[in-house]
């Protein structure tokens, strides 16, 4: 069974076609990088995967559950970190998580256990009583990851989670999520417009103007960083990095 299976997905905003003929899968425990320039359709895809938008065409299955037909079962297997942070800056780390646990219907005692667990996993236990406002960007993102994992999904979606972070925090966050993927057997769909967040061992999906223009093991698409950069530039018209 695949963690995620997207079949013949298409989506339009009125007359504007945002996604066309998208098919791909993400296997359990694998790290998939969805790479595409601004406007490629990454956030539109995340909105469809999280059911913020209704399916117009095609099908999405999460751990074998169709999002159209068994939305609750499908959504239960899925955790998400949206492009725009959705934390309350004036609540503490723990309060943000507690609120979310309640939304998921976790009983108080169970919520406490899960919050302790996730904060430890994200190395945030010592920050739990601080307001989110006091945390730096990388730590705020980790709070969002902890929150996304409270209900123990099998698939984690991150939409440009590293955008706006300084280069060191950006790569630290990327490494951190890879570690979770390895240690927890979590499937990850990591969207980005930055090539240096892709590693040779990733399943790579290159999205341009709503279409997948390449998909497969990153090392096959570009034998090394330089040729992956060239391939990305050729396929998307993006300027090649010097
Ligand atoms: P990305 O996340 O890759 O930057 P988006 O999914 O945000 O791309 O956008 C894909 C395309 O859809 C872009 O051309 C964008 O202008 C368009 N688009 C996004 N949101 C809307 C919307 N609410 N209404 C109309 N067009 C939109
Ligand atoms: Mg986006």
UniProtKB/TrEMBL annotation:
Keywords assigned by UniProt, alphabetized: ATP-binding, Nodulation, Nucleotide-binding, Transport
InterPro entries, per the entry: AAA+_ATPase (IPR003593), ABC_transporter-like_ATP-bd (IPR003439), ABC_transporter_ATP-binding (IPR050763), ABC_transprt_ATP-bd_su_PQQ (IPR022467), P-loop_NTPase (IPR027417)
Claim: Magnesium is one of the keywords in the record: no
Presence of keyword Transport: yes
Gene3D superfamilies reported in the protein's UniProt record: P-loop containing nucleotide triphosphate hydrolases
GO molecular function annotations of the record: ATP binding; ATP hydrolysis activity
Listed Pfam families: ABC_tran
Domain ABC transporter: 4-234
Residues annotated as signal peptide: none
Family membership: Belongs to the ABC transporter superfamily.
PANTHER family: ABC TRANSPORTER ATP-BINDING PROTEIN (PTHR42711), ABC TRANSPORTER ATP-BINDING PROTEIN NATA (PTHR42711:SF5)
Protein name in the entry: ABC transporter ATP-binding protein
Species annotation: Pseudomonas taeanensis MS-3
């Amino acid at each position: 069974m695949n963690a995620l299976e997207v079949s013949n997905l298409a989506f339009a905003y009125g007359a504007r076609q945002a996604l066309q003929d998208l098919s791909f899968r993400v296997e359990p425990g694998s790290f998939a990088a969805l790479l595409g320039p601004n406007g490629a359709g990454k956030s539109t895809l995340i909105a469809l995967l999280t059911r913020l938008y209704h399916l117009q065409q095609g099908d999405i299955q999460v751990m074998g559950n169709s999002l159209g037909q068994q939305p609750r079962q499908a959504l239960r297997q899925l955790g998400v970190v949206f492009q725009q942070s959705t934390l309350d800056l004036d609540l503490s780390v723990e309060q943000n998580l507690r609120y979310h646990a309640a939304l998921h219907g976790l009983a108080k005692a169970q919520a406490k256990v899960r919050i302790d667990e996730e904060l430890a996993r994200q190395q945030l236990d010592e920050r739990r009583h601080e307001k989110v406002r006091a945390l730096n960007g990388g730590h705020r993102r980790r709070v969002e990851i902890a929150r996304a994992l409270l209900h123990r999904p099998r698939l984690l979606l991150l939409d440009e989670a590293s955008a706006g972070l300084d280069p060191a925090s950006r790569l630290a966050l990327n490494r951190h999520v890879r570690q979770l993927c390895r240690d927890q057997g979590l499937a990850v769909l990591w969207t980005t417009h930055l090539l240096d967040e892709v590693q040779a061992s990733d399943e790579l999906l290159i999205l341009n103007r709503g279409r997948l223009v390449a998909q497969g093991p990153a090392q096959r698409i570009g034998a090394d960083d330089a040729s992956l950069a060239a391939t990305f530039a050729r396929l998307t018209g993006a300027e090649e990095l010097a």
